[in-house]
Amino acid sequence: MEDDTIQKYLHDQPFQRRLGTQVTEGLFTADLLHILHNLEVEADGRKTFPELMNDHFEMIGSEWKKKANKSEMALQGMLLILEYCMWTPATSSELFERLVNFLGFHSIQFWKIAVPVLFESDFTASTKYRDALLFSLALYDVNTGKSRLKEVYAAVPGSREALLGENAKAFGEKFHHLKKRISRHNSRASLLDEVATPGKDRSPSAGAENGYDSDTDHSIPSGLASAHFHQRVINVSNAPPVSLKKEKTGEWEIKQGSGGLVSCVDPVMSKHEDNVWLANLGMNVGGKGGKRPSNSDQSHSLAPATNTLGLPLIKQTIAEVLFHVLAEEDEVANVKDKNKEREDLSLLGVLNHYNRGRYKLNPVVVQEEDYNVYYGGISNGLLWPALHNLPEYISDEYKDPKIIRDHWCSYVRVNYQFAIDAVRNSRPQDFIWIHDYHLVLVGLIMQSLDPNLEVGFFLHIPFQPPDSFFDQFALCAIPLLRGLLRFTKVGFQTHRDRDRFVAEVEKYFKSAKICFDKQLDIYTITLEGVTCSLGVFPVSIKNEDFLQFVSRPETQKLSADIRKKMLGPHPTPDTRLFFSVERFDYTKGIREKLHGWRKYLEIHPERRGKDVLYQIAVTNRRSVDMYRVYQDECMAIVEEINREFATKEWTPIVFECDGLPRDQLVAAYCAMDIGVVTPRKDGMNLVAKEMIVVNPRAGLILSTGAGSEIQFYNAGLYGAEGERNYTRIEDLYDPLEYAACFYDAATLNEEERAKRSKKIHEFLLAHDIERWSTAFLDPRWTHHVIKKIQIETIDDFFSLMIRTRHIRRQIVERVLEGVPIRQHFCISLTNARDSLLASTASPNTLRVRAPKSSDIATFDIQNEISELERDLSFIEYVESDDPDNIEQFVESLSKGMEYFHEQVDEATALLTKADHFFYFFTDRDGTLKSYSCAYPASIQPAYSGVIQAQFARRCAQTCAILTTAPMMNTGILDVGTIPEGYYYYGASGGREWYVSPSIKFRDGFIQNTEQKLLDELFNRLSLLVEEEEFHVFSWIGSGLQKHYGHVTIAHQDVHGSISTEKGTKLKKKVEEITKEIDESGELMAVVHSDRETKVLLKTEAGQLFDKGNGLRMLCTNLNIDLKEGNILVCGDSSTDLPMLEECLQRNSSGVFTIWVTQDRKLQEKVRALCGDFSNSNFVFVNSPEVLLGAMAQATIRETCRPRQYI
């Protein structure tokens, strides 16, 4: 239906309202009625828009999916529904969820239509539909566990980058690159950059067809892929590490904060001034609009400093993240020197001063209304009491489904803003550390924004929800479980909490794969394709922060004054001062403690007049009803006890509600005889550790609800039998047990008490905050890291090597992009190498059990070990700031090769002679990589992947690797490490090709009947190698492989470990089986080479399909004309000769070829073949390392020479 026809029925089209149109629910209802009328549907005009949706939603959607006459009008109905959801996002989440569910497989199609008009509405009518859509999809993903937000990114390129402000960030990074280059103008790299003009260099293979721009896609990318050598910590928490207060003069006062989180994390953050702390500082948006800075300004591409291979220098491309604070315009209009006085008065100025010389504190700004509900509602009204297993304190308002849905939306919205800010402030190498129950969903949302970031989470409170929590509050509870599993790693305070979390995951996510590493004490859980590691890390304190006050004279005097004030001027020797300090919170067990103290005084009258309970309960959250009621009840109990038992000279309870500065708190610790820390359920309760670190002669009373008690118990400090170094309360609700604990602690002689506490003191000195943070941040315990193992079976060996492929692929990607290499990559490759070395029976010889038999397989793994060592050396070189780092690494390849330099020079001269290649066709194994002991272990090293990719980028346009290996199922794509876009892959001798995810093709002449014969042959050979006599052939070399169009089985390995007699027997057996299947011999042919036997399907003409046929098929499918430009061909065996011949036939003078072989006969064949076409452009080298060295030198030459531009 044409637009003008639609217009007759609608006031305005959805998202395309005329300026000045007042959007109301009545307008939506009228438009919907018009659409229904045109769809010939009777509708009740008295109903509201949501009511009409309930009646007709399915019909409108189904009509659109039909793609019939009325589909265009139905599409307007779908857009109208979306516009209504965006107009009222807070109340339409259920309708939006219904819309997204209905779209199903049509999602991307719908978003391609809807998103552009939605974005246009924001530009023309100043709506905020884009933000509403992206958040609504994030909420949907949180609630359902799906990834619909990614569908919008796929449908609308650039939407993700716009959301994260990557252009603005890239501008800041490029500006820093320019400053860095100016500061290094005397360096070689800088001079080379000065003569080069930014622009398109060379296109790798994909560029020939798709307009691929290598500089924009494979150099330093904009935005998130900035380069900075060291790994920063991006700390994200609800509460900031400071307290802010605005004075009457208008000036802001900023003070370092206190509390458990700050005590734990501040030492980590203070190690480097580039670390960033994101937190809400209380300056939120309360309905008043503000202008956002424009991201529209863009700069031209500016390449960072590079090494001679054209790779970004990781240490040199240090980028800064700009610091942004949302403030009133008149406060930040000008912050230069002329307005310095004004800046000093502004919050921005105060924060800038705070950030100088320390880590950067950046505020996260959200809507005030959302924040109040998120913090005072869901966080503290539901999650806090639920996770402490105190359901009686869950707010009654959450019995209303509508309220909990509305509040949940606010909780998600705040987490969404924290997630966006965290991604915007991060670099690919950073570790983002999220803290506590307020921000459980941040990891899940960050996954949808950038799945490559490493995001950890630490839960500072218990995880002990009541059994009813996941059923009664499923809307929140299930997403919380899923949200925790989307972090890279999660830390709990105690084993009790982690075990409970794992149990709930097992119960509610049946498909979750749960593994436990007993040696590391780590769980890994994989759910919906994402893996998370779970560890236990009891938080501690920075001991020196407290010990520094202990010996000071002023502390000793203040301590004595406290004892005199509490106990009187002349206390008896057996008088005891009990001390407690905590927040005035119902989780802390203060009320139960007071009841226990009353009972203690009742049943032990002899202690009256002696013992005093000094309680500091820092008042907080008085605005929350349940807190205010609880606090008032406790104060009333204190008054009753003092009224009942106090005398003129003695007060049984001294109760204070103001916190103490640290020096005074240490003095109180020194003054006490017994510390009391008895929460109902709590996190680690660091105050218990502070007490004994400061005063190792004091006693300690702990409840089993304290996290520190669980840690001490597990450490053996309180045995079920034997020594007990503190007093333990198990039932807080039993005043008699409380009283007994008070009495035992009070009457224990001081010498014994000091002896017990000394053991806790020593334990705490050995387990301080440095050990805690180091343990949590240590990458070695996550699932990403390859662990050291004892290799006992073939499967152990092959799976270890495949895991190194995943690591090496990431290394290649990061080096090509100029992104620093994560620490755990080096750890993984080191562990893999060490596992191989530790498992060898003799040098370089690995003996492992074969599957399904008692056979012992023997592998020479010298190549695998040396390639891992080269990769580790490569990482060390590439992370240096020397522009010659790659040349230095290539030089290191020459070790043990006397011929290396001469042959590299000769091969480089040939490459230089050609200057540039239109096409590069090469074999892989034996040519670009030395042969391995078995194909599943034939993983391409990272250094090789980088050199080959850079050669493709700089020296050639269309590049292809053509191999006889299969494509998948332990094929070329499984063992390669080069990212997509650099090379095409031809497998099975070129009978199947992979160009890109959307471009794949095969030899179309193979019939199903022929493929079935090949399948039968493969099955027969599979049974053959299970026989004891032939079992060894299932693992040597390439083993038994099924290709497209042929089957291969290795009869010898590269080390010649199989006897000639045994190999000959296998070859005869293969010939017999082939003859039985293809009696006429018209369909299949058996071909024996030095190490493999191949059974190939013949071509339609009855010939054998070779690499020449495969290359011809590539050219036909992609319209490649080999007559254009120069061609480089590389190979190492006779199977590569047809590839060379095909190129010579097409372009005899433009072919250049390098052969990796010392075989004189093969060399003569190459010379003869080239001679037939009057071509002398050939070179022979002894090893793949020489070829890689020449490719590197050619790339360096191409990168370093000045380029001419018109």
In short:
This protein has 1206 residues and is of the alpha/beta class. It contains 46 helices and 32 strands. Helix 4 (71-87) runs antiparallel to helix 5 (93-103) and helix 34 runs parallel beside helix 39.
Question: Could you characterize what this model shows?
Answer:
The protein is an alpha/beta fold and 1206 residues long. The chain is 48% helix and 13% strand. Strands 5-4-1-6-7-8-11-10-9 form a nine-stranded mixed sheet, sandwiched between helices. Helix 20 (442-449) links the parallel strand 6 and strand 7 (454-458). Helix 34 runs parallel beside helix 39 and helix 38 (900-914) packs across helix 46 (1184-1200). The model is unreliable at 1-9, 184-228, 287-306 and 312-345 (pLDDT under 50). It is an enzyme of class 2 (transferase). One of its GO terms (biological process) is trehalose biosynthetic process. GO terms for molecular function: alpha,alpha-trehalose-phosphate synthase (UDP-forming) activity; trehalose-phosphatase activity.
Question: Which key terms come to mind for this protein?
Answer:
1206 residues, 9-stranded mixed beta sheet, 8-stranded mixed beta sheet, 32 strands, globular, disordered N terminus
